[in-house]
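Example S7 (structure tokens).
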């Protein structure tokens, strides 16, 4: 059995068509998202495959893509109106 872990994908994409394509790819995997930050629960292999799939869709000279694993043993700090409860329920939210 593959171990599923929470992960965040974040991107900054300049082209609207490319941004829509990446969003379409992520919508199949994500639990939640806001604009260019999307939360998923994936195995290491699925995360790597998704990262490669998105990487092939973007222009690496103008666009940015980040995959960040979330450690379930650490608190999540947030500020503003963002939701932090979809991956880890005991997160701290600072407003």
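Recovered sequence:
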């Amino acid at each position: 059995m593959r171990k599923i872990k929470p992960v965040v994908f974040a991107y900054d994409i300049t082209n609207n068509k490319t941004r829509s394509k990446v969003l379409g790819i992520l919508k199949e995997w994500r639990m939640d998202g806001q604009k260019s930050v999307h939360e998923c629960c994936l195995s290491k292999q699925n995360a790597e495959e998704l990262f490669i799939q998105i990487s092939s869709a973007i222009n690496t000279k103008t666009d940015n893509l980040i995959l960040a694993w979330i450690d379930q043993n650490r608190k999540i700090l947030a500020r503003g109106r963002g939701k932090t409860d979809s991956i880890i329920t005991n997160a701290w939210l600072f407003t």
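Notes on this example. The longest helix spans residues 44-57.
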